[in-house]
Amino acid sequence: MELVRHGYNYYPYELELANREARVLFPNARFTETDKGIRLAGKVDSAIADRLVYYSAIKSGETTVRTLQGKLERINGAEPRRQATRYSAHGLHEYKGKFNPQIARAILNILDIPVGAHVIDPFCGSGTSLLECAHLGMTAIGTDINPLAVFIANAKIEALRLPKGRLEKELSNVLENFKVARVSKPTDEAGEARATYLAAWFDDAILRVIERLRSAIERADPGCAPAFLAVASNLLRDYSHQDPVDLRIRRRKSPLPNVSFIDAFEETALAFIGKLEETKKVLPRLRGAGKAWLHDSRQLDSATFLNGQKFDCALTSPPYATALPYIDTQRLSLVWLGLAQPSEIAPLESRLVGSREVRDKKQALTALKNNGAELPAAQAQYCVELQEALTDADGFRRRAVPLLLYRYFAGMASVFQTLRPNMKSGAPFALIVGTNHTVLSGKRFDIDTPQHLAELAAANGWVHEESVPLQIYHRYGYHTGNAVTGEAMVIVRAK
User: Fold this and answer.
1) How far is CA 172 from CA 222, 225, 229, 273, 337, in A?
2) Torsion sign across C-alpha atoms 444, 445, 449, 450
3) Which tens digits make up the pLDDT trace of 101-127?
4) 3-state DSSP assignment of residue 65
5) Predicted structure pTM score
6) CATH 3.40.50.150 for domain 101-145+287-324+352-494
7) Domain residue extents for the chain
8) Torsion of the alpha carbons at 128, 130, 131 and 137, rounded to the nearest 10
9) Ribosomal RNA large subunit methyltransferase K/L-like methyltransferase domain: from which residue to which, for each copy (predicted)?
């Protein structure tokens, strides 16, 4: 039997992950490299091969059968020479910082997590890992502090579970309701604050359309409404006065789209429904379950929804130190969907693990100098070293870096500490995390976040197993300076 790779070019780390997942799933087979993949000899269970991520097909004699991943990535005629990352419901809504779904699935294979296992993602974002667990027949729980992330994640999972044809039928109802929809004037202070904020970022005509659409969607089948709201939310920035490609809130200089908002919504919704219907043909019965919860992963000891569940595996792509302003850039969606008031945006941003905002610098500096969070000596001393490197030549952003990094380490230590009691003994925890750097007083400091997290985990009930370097995608344009300089997969296990 031969495992055939996909038609696109692989990064070196993808070839390594491909080799690892095959050796874990086929521990008794003999491997021989071929031009297109790997030939297996010996004891081989062909049914297990369907779990593979980095192989598109299984060839046995003259018969070639596509793997599940091969089918998912080619849905709707996707180009075979480009890796598809928006298959299934993954493309419902853009979300900065989400990790590649292939990596999430490969991790589950490499860690040998069985069908029916219980998995947790403490920084679930828009639900990439939750969706991949559902594809594999696993039960996954995710937590995130960002209300929009939780909304999108649950919208994806709910859409995947809907009966075939239901979304398309309900879309027709939404478009009909839109024609007669009326928007009521706000009757309370919160409603007025929302309306005033949105009016500052949208032309009157466009705002009337998106508000009528929201009214029409909210009258739709409750099972379908989240997906349609997510589709509309994903279009908001393109039709606002916000620069659509800048993560900061800056006024756009480019013209607004020529296509009307409602036409763009219908086209996008139909494309998503078509992709989802094809996915359901590949996955006729979704065996796994999943749900995202709005909860701070630093306080999992207070998460009553876990119900004492012990997890077989944890995986996540956590933020890195001084992360990008994810809440700030998503404020239009947060306010339009009613997930946050305009006045709540800045406080929410400052609460994120890895936030770049410091609301009480004096208190933060005291915590750093006195090691108030009782961090391991290496992490505490590193933050002190950065603090002592500062001079008057450093601007306010750079002067905040040591404080932010200390707070980030403290936050991640809390995650390791509060997650550990919810894991089975020996259960693995895989983290995909990036390294970055800062320049203080003209000197460059590389922040080896993967190594720091491995040491923080070891101090809080975990054993560091290995760290696997991953080559990152190069970023250009607006965010080159913010880009991570490398990534790694850190694997630790619960003691």
Assistant:
1) 15, 13, 15, 12, 21
2) positive
3) 999 999 999 999 999 999 999 999 999
4) strand
5) 0.94
6) yes
7) 2-77, 101-145+287-324+352-494
8) 150
9) 95-149
